[in-house]
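Input for the complex:
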Amino acid sequence: MSSTSRARLGEEVWKLRTDKINAELVTLTYGSVVAQLCKDLDGDYVEVNKQLDKMGYNIGLRLIEDFLAKSNMQQKCANFRDTADVISKVGFKMFLNITPTIANWSSDNKQFSLLFDENPLADFVELPDDGKAQSELWYSNMLCGVIRGALEMVQMSVDAHFVSDVLRGNDTTEMRINLIRYIEDEMPQDDE
Amino acid sequence: MASTPGIPVIAIIGKQNNPIYIYNSRLPLPSTSLTTSLDLHLLLHSTLDVFEARLPQKTADQDFGLLFAIDERLAAYGWMTNTGVKFVVIVDQGFNSSSALSTRGGGLGGAIREADLKPVFKSIHTEYIKLISNPFYDHESKEMVKSKKFSAALEKIAETGIPGVY
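Predicted:
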């Protein structure tokens, strides 16, 4: 399946097979989750990142099923480059109606970056001005967990983390995804 | 000669009449009674009385129009959302054109119509919504807002002035 037909597939799934929800509702819901975590954990942003990632992981485990059902992907991705393309053009398109740009491939084709031109989760957000949040909190860290969880269910063990965020004053929002290995056999699931 | 009446001051005042944000671009304003920030606060306090006095007659409309004229150049206009948050805009009609009053032939507050302020208040309202939608915004806080995004947005609104007015 070519890259353009994936883009078309993403568009089609978004238009025809996705139940829509009001954008502000999503933004405010995600925002209150993050803000409440920050409050409950007393501004320990490293821990907040971890919790967000964990929540995302649990979402990813379930979301992949929905993704496969709705997208009707007929064949497996041949390589990791294909996977990246599907994540961006079909996955993000159908769940958030965005298509992050794929960039910065490593030479061994095992690492790439997703560049988010827009991020519906982070509309309206301004990080707290406490001298810490700007350097420690990855506001949209749940997305990393989602990707990690979803790929794990299709036999890929990956590491995903943000390396820059416009909320912190960076020029771009960039997530780095690193393929650790393909999981060969059914392994007992990581109990998180 | 066309000119845009300036907006030197935009104030956001909370439900409890607590100041939320006060934008002022160029105090002291030349040849007016508004010279220090103390004057400004006093003035904003007096607008609250007008809001309160007119409230019983208000319908659902949020536009309070001209609150009062301050002097030959300045006039205060008000807007109150249905949640009790008030926006006050002070308009400087002498800004950019000394002939603004004579060309429109109006007296105080005559050079611009109240409807002209509507788009200005609408955009302030939009920015205010964005501000309070920030999940880290503290609604219980009695402190003034420090958001840089919000300040920048208000500054832009003030600099744009009132479009389409001569």
